[in-house]
């Protein structure tokens, strides 16, 4: 596959339809789903001269990622944004906060213990 074919394929995949989904209408309320799209790509081409295995080389690839961002809710002519809640991110944030809290408490306990030991040695 040629690198230009990979680039053309990436362009075709990066459309507005990847960000905004089809509107859904029920009982006078229209919901338009929205996603965050991230993508990247790379490629290379080279020709090895001489050596044991002369020949041509090329390569390329790309990646595309979509994450729900939320929905636009349209009701009675008014538009409201309703963000998507990423429970995994909330749980991860809580775990990181817990580890930081435990490390902080540990450091405080060690500092207090060292001060007490230092006072005992001075009194002796």
UniProtKB/TrEMBL annotation:
Domain of life of the organism encoding this protein: Bacteria
Keywords attached to this entry: Membrane, Transmembrane, Transmembrane helix
Pfam family, one: Spore_YtfJ
Compositional bias annotation for Basic and acidic residues: 46-55
Transmembrane regions: 90-109
Entry annotated with the keyword Methyltransferase: no
InterPro entries reported for this sequence: Spore_YtfJ
Spans annotated as Disordered: 37-63
Protein name: Sporulation protein
Organism annotation: Planobispora takensis
